[in-house]
Specification:
By secondary structure, the chain is of the alpha/beta class. It is 38% helix and 15% strand. Bound molecules: ligand NAX, adenosine-5'-diphosphate (ADP) and potassium ion. Its EC number is 4.2.1.136, 5.1.99.6.
Length: 506
């Protein structure tokens, strides 16, 4: 068993891949062995998390997730714990593994009760074994009335005792990180301050790390039930470990500024165009590119030449028509407003490497010719990274932001295929997708990043990584990891602003 600390890369497996692994492992093991291992792992972690628990309450569902809970009950009872189980399932309808687990729990003398024991306190432990990977969005034949299940879930979530979820927090979709309808915690449940842990069994699943998954899982553990050898090909990867080394300090001594590439930020609509000045977005991206290690950073503002001097002397002003396209990595769209449309045909056709952000994406979404020009870049061998947030992704895919969020991995992959380039779908658990590559989920970052301009900073940092010679997928993964890590290491006593974040980058 390992605690997932987000410090190393991890293979992720979808429900289908996990089922395949389970089938392969089960066929070479004695009957019920996997579930016994699952129950034992759960009991071990329970004892470690709540060594002084006077009571352990286990709420078990009617499927095999409930079976894991029943196995854990038998182990914990044998370890001398005061265990009670609520199991609204029935032996005659339980799947075979869960039926065997029920028999073991009964034989061990586990107490069955309709609800939690009275007086559960912070030292006690609750175990959520209601639903695992068998969750269906519309349960076609639930063996337990959904209302009973929801009532149990509510008692688990609002109890003061430590909460350990078996395999998944019940109701969370393991593939997407979204709660099924009716399962998302309400305000009172979300505000409950109990310690929460999740023990993922056999595999780590993508939904644990994106969308609502991070909040749902809280602290995460993984046990492969000694079945690692049966793992099929990964569905996705979790980023982690050391980033590709883009640091100047480790570069050859005779490097010069040209060795680290030129970034040209193109964006920042002026105030006069529509009464909305957005030059700050371009400066933020430029500052991030500079602090991220680009050799030279130029800024081409879309402000009709109103700005005469950059806010930092390291930055250079350029007109779009004065850019040396074969040399530059363009970061285009930050604060670009409507003005960016006029320059996009040139940028898409000419930029040697391109990060397309914000209004650059919105323009492509609403203009077929620009979309075709974007796709054409791949045929011309010109690398591109798109950096949409969910609403921008929805515009590009002609769907709603809710549909994007409903399956972030699929949405990012669909965008990457449609535009034949790398895509960073931003938000909690950013997804990085590139045609022909395993998609990545980024584990760093936190809600402090939910402040204006941090997306511009990310675009600039990706530009710096591309300019330093990383391939688009690697550049995007490295920059997203570093951007989130900067927020994770942010001093508690300082508020995070985008300009301070840009200056904090490496
Ligand atoms: N079979 C085995 O050998 C192993 C199974 N494992 C456990 O088994 C779990 C998967 O078991 P199952 O496939 O039985 O699935 P689950 O136990 O996760 O869920 C299936 C049950 O929940 C009900 N249900 C599903 N969606 C519902 C909804 N929206 N509302 C109300 N009820 C709903 C179904 O009717 C069914 O009774 C894993 O998550 C894991 O915990 C692990 O122990 C590994 C080994
Ligand atoms: N809750 C969160 N957890 C992790 N990252 C977040 C969270 N909220 C925002 N971010 C990150 O912050 C950045 C915001 O970008 P974006 O939405 O484009 O904002 P803006 O346009 O204001 O710069 C993205 O990198 C996104 O992934
Ligand atoms: K569960």
């Amino acid at each position: 068993m390992e605690r997932i600390n987000f410090d190393q890369a991890q293979a992720l497996h979808s429900v289908a891949a996990t089922r395949a692994m389970e089938a392969a492992a089960a066929s070479s093991l004695p009957a019920h062995a996997l579930m016994q291992r699952a129950g034992a792992a759960c009991a071990r972690l329970a004892l470690a998390l709540a060594p002084h628990a006077r009571h352990v309450w286990i709420a078990c569902g009617s499927g095999n997730n409930g079976g894991d809970g029943l196995e854990a009950a038998a182990w914990l009872h044998q370890a001398g714990k005061n265990v009670s189980v609520t199991w609204p399932g029935a032996p005659e309808t339980a799947p075979p593994d869960a039926h065997a687990a029920w028999q073991r729990a009964v034989a061990a003398g586990v107490v069955f009760a309709p609800g939690p024991p009275p007086g559960l306190g912070p030292h006690d432990l609750c175990i959520d074994a209601l639903l695992g990977i068998g969750l269906r969005s519309q349960a076609d034949a639930p063996r337990m009335p959904p209302t009973a299940l929801h009532a149990l879930l509510r008692q688990l979530r609002t109890s003061p005792a430590t909460l350990l979820a078996v395999d998944l927090p019940s109701g969370l979709d393991a593939d997407t990180g979204q709660y099924a309808a009716g399962f998302a915690p309400d305000a009172e449940e979300a505000a409950a301050s109990t310690a929460r842990h999740t023990l993922s069994l056999l595999t780590l699943k993508p939904g644990l790390f994106t969308a609502q998954g991070r909040d749902a899982c809280a602290s995460l553990w993984h046990d492969d039930l000694q079945c690692g050898a049966f793992a099929p090909a990964a569905t996705a990867e979790l980023s982690g470990g050391r980033q590709p080394d883009a640091r100047k300090a480790r570069a050859p001594h005779d490097s010069h500024k040209g060795s680290f590439g030129d970034v040209a930020v193109i964006g920042g609509e002026g105030l006069q165009a529509r009464g909305m000045g957005m030059t700050g977005a371009a400066w933020l991206a430029a500052s991030a590119a500079l602090h991220g290690g680009a050799g030279r950073v130029m800024v081409a503002l879309l402000d009709d030449g109103q700005t005469l001097a950059p806010p930092w002397p390291e930055l250079m002003l350029r007109r779009v028509d004065a850019l040396d396209w074969p040399q530059v990595t363009a970061v285009c769209g930050c604060g670009g407003g409507e003005a960016v449309r006029a320059v996009l045909p040139t940028v898409l056709a000419q930029a040697a490497r391109l990060v397309l952000d914000a209004d650059g994406l919105n323009a492509v979404a609403s203009d077929n010719a620009l979309a075709a020009a974007l796709r054409q870049r791949a045929h011309a061998g010109l690398p591109t990274v798109l950096t949409p947030h969910p609403l921008e992704a929805a515009r590009l895919l002609q769907c709603t932001a809710a549909q994007v969020q409903a399956d972030r991995l699929a949405a990012a992959q669909a965008l990457a295929e449609r535009y034949a380039c790398s895509v960073v779908l931003k938000g909690s658990g950013s997804i990085i997708a590139t045609p022909g590559q395993l998609p990545r989920i980024n584990p760093t970052g936190n809600a402090r990043l939910a402040t204006a301009g941090t997306g511009d900073v990310l675009a600039g940092l990706i530009g710096a990584r591309l300019a330093q010679g990383l391939a688009p997928h690697a550049a995007a993964c490295s920059a997203v990891l570093a951007h989130g890590a900067a927020a994770d290491h942010w001093p508690d006593d300082r508020s995070l602003t985008a300009s301070a974040l840009a200056a904090f980058l490496q």
